[in-house]
Amino acid sequence: MPRAKKPRQESEPSDAGDQQERPSQLNQIREAISAPGRAQPDEEPPELPAPQEAPELPAPTAEEAAEPPTVTETATAVADPPAAAEPAAAEPPAAEPVISPWVPPPTAPPPGMRPAPMVRSGAGGSGLAVGIVFVVVGVFFLLIRLLDIDLSSYGWPLYVIIPGLTLLVVGFVSLGSGALIPGGIITVTGLILAYNSVTEDWASWSYAWALVAPGGVGLGIFLQGLRVRNASLTRQGRSLMYWAVLIFLIGFVFFESILNVSGHDYGKIGQAALPALLIIIGVTLLVRNFQRQGKT
Asked: Mean pLDDT throughout 106-130?
């Protein structure tokens, strides 16, 4: 079981003598502490000097009064703004965006911006070229009939040359290579036939074929390059025509100067054919060599 706490007994003073001793000892301690610093009653405190009056400052002049406030005054004014600040002006309400009505896009470009129609060089272009050739040949036949011109002996190659020239003109103007290459082949063929008809040198076809192909093909490609201003096509057509002439000269030297298949005496032309061929081959090799050195 827990113990019961005993009541605390207060201590009572033993006697009255102890009460009288304690105040006397405290008084003695106080007297001992305050005795050295005790002031003499007879001495008077020293008199303090009277405060001097501050000299009067002269009144500020007009120039000094007009001077701007110093940095300290400005900082103080900024630190302590006036209590009553003016209310900020109310901002106007933002304007609502104007929504324009929806306009459908145009279905066709304006009349002034319509692209020019392009002529296709496919089946439609070939049909157009053939139609133009038929019209030109028909007009040519009509003129021969009306004027009673006899082309049976020497003029019959015109039936080949005129369609070829027509294709060249039409191809250069509008149709392009679809008419230029056939026109070149037909025109060159007609010119060779005209030469054979006049000279009766039909054996020349043994080497003249090179002028038709690749010569006629090169002529058509060359004209197409000039038409579209394409340097690559122009160079390709010129190269084909060069090889055609070279093959023709080699064949002429072999078949006419050596074999004499036609039996014609070409005179100075036949004698100069071989030297001319050698010169052309040598110049070609030199030019190609210089081009390769220039590239490296």
From this structure: 58
**How far is residue 256's CA from residue 144's CA, in Å, rounded to a whole number?**
37
Give yes or no for residue 116 having a pLDDT over 60. Answer: no
Q: What is the mean pLDDT of the chain?
A: 74
Residues contacting residue 123 through CB under 8 Å, at least 6 positions apart: none
- Contact between 179 and 125 under an 8 Å Cβ cutoff? The reply is yes
* Whole-structure pTM value: 0.54
The tokens describing 35, both together, are 């005795």
Q: Burial code of 148-175, b = ≥16 C-beta within 10 A, e = fewer?
A: eeeeeeeeebbebbbbbbbbbbbbbeeb
How far, in Å, CA of 271 to CA of 25, rounded? 167
Is 161 a domain residue? Answer: yes
Quick one: average pLDDT of 61-79? 52
In a domain, 274, yes or no: yes
100 in a structural domain: no
Range of the domain at 161: 123-295
* CB-based contact 222:205 (threshold 8 Å): no
Domain tally, the chain: 1
* Assigned domain for 84 exists: no
Please tell me the least confidently modeled range out of 137-151, 179-193, 212-226. Answer: 137-151
Q: Are 234 and 225 spatial neighbours (Cβ–Cβ below 8 Å)?
A: yes
Is the link from the previous residue into 104 a cis peptide, with omega within 30 of 0? no
Which residues have a Cβ under 8 Å from the Cβ of 69 and sit 6 or more positions away?
A: 77
Q: What confidence category does residue 84 fall into, taking pLDDT thresholds of 50, 70 and 90?
A: very low
